[in-house]
Amino acid sequence: MAAAEEVSDHDHLAQKKKPLSEDDKRRKKMVPGGLMKATIRPGGGESTPKDGDQVVYHCAVRTLDGVVVQSSKSEFGGKGIPIRQVLGKSKILLGLLEGMPTMSKGEVAMFKIKSPLHYGEEDCPVPVPSNFPKDDDLHFEIEMIDFFKPKQVVTDDLGVVKKTPREPYEIKARISGKKCDGKSISSCERTEPYLFTFGKSEASSPFKWYLSESPLLPLVGDFEEIHFEVELVHFVQVRDMLRDGRLIKCRICDGQGDFPMDCPLHDSRLRVHYKGMLLDNENSVFYDTRIDNDGQPLEFCSGEGLVIPEGFEMCVRLMLPGEIANLQSNHVFGK
After folding, report:
1. Burial class (CB in 10 A: 0-12, 13-18, 19+), 192
2. CA distance linking residue 100 with residue 84, whole number of Å
3. How far apart are CA 57 and CA 82, in angstroms?
4. Where in 64-107 does DSSP place strands (E)?
5. Count of C-beta atoms within a 10 Å radius of residue 286
6. pLDDT tens-digit map of 195-227
7. pLDDT band for position 307 (cuts 50, 70, 90)
8. Would you say the pTM of this structure is higher than 0.85?
9. Alpha carbon distance 312, 81 (integer Å)
10. At 226, is the secondary structure helix, strand, or coil?
C-alpha cells in the first residue's frame, strides 16, 4: 500500500512539473567544444547574472582572423550604446545565453562560438544581414558592464502588482524622454502632467513608446535606446461595468477594507451620499443629497430593485465603505 502511494505521489509531481521554456529547449543543442571562454579582464565579486536579470554589456564580434563584423562599441564602428537584455526573456544568441551567466560585473571575456550556437543556429531568434558570416566560427568579445533585477512594474499584458495603475486606470504623469547623449526627444517643454487612460490607445505600451505613435510623445524611430523619466502624479481606477462604455465607474478615493470581501452583500442596508450632474459644459447639478435631502444620505437595501436608476446600485455594490467614486452613464441611469 505504501509503495502504491509513493508511485501516486511521483505521478502527481510529474504532472506538476513545469514544461520546458524555449530557452531550455535551445540549450539541448549545446555540444562539447561549441562554446569556449577566455577571460581577458577579471571582474569584481562572485555574483553572476541569472535568469530574469537584466544584463548591460558591450559586444564585439570578430572572425577568427580578427576582422570585426559587428560591434556595439564606437571604437569598432558601433553606436557606443551598451546592449540591454533580460536573460530568459530577450532574444539572445544561444552561445551568449550560456556564456554570460558565467561572467561577473566588470569582466571582459572572449567567447569562441561555433556556428550552430550563434547566428547559424537553426531557427535562430536573432536576425542578421544576409551577408553576415553566420556559417563561420566567431569570436564574441563581451564586456559585462552591469546586471541586476529589473524593476518590472508593467508586464507584457499590462498586468501589474498591487497599488500600481493598470488597464483601464486613468493616469496623470509627467513624462520626459532623452537620448543616450542626454538630449530631449521632445522639441518643447511641458510643465503640466499628461492625462491618459490605459486601454484607450492614448499611450502605447510602455515598452514601445518610442516606436509607435502616441499623442503624448512624438514618434521616434531613429534611436536604438531612449531613457524615460516618469513621475506618477495620480491614478484613478476605472471600471467599464457593462463592457460597452455605457456605464463607467471611476474610483476617486479609496475606501476601507479588502475588495471584494468588504463590498455590500445582496441584502445589505446601504447609506450613500450622491450628487447627480449633467455631462454638459458646466456639469450642472440636478440633485445633491447633502442639499436636497436635508443633508441625509440615501438609504436603501441592495437587491430589492428599488433604486432608480438601475446602474446606481450596480456600481455601489462594487464600492468599499468610505470610497468616493464618479459614475458616468449613457442611458443606463435613465431607465
Report:
1. exposed
2. 12
3. 5
4. 68-71, 83-86
5. 9
6. 776 655 445 444 344 334 455 555 555 555 677
7. low
8. no
9. 55
10. strand
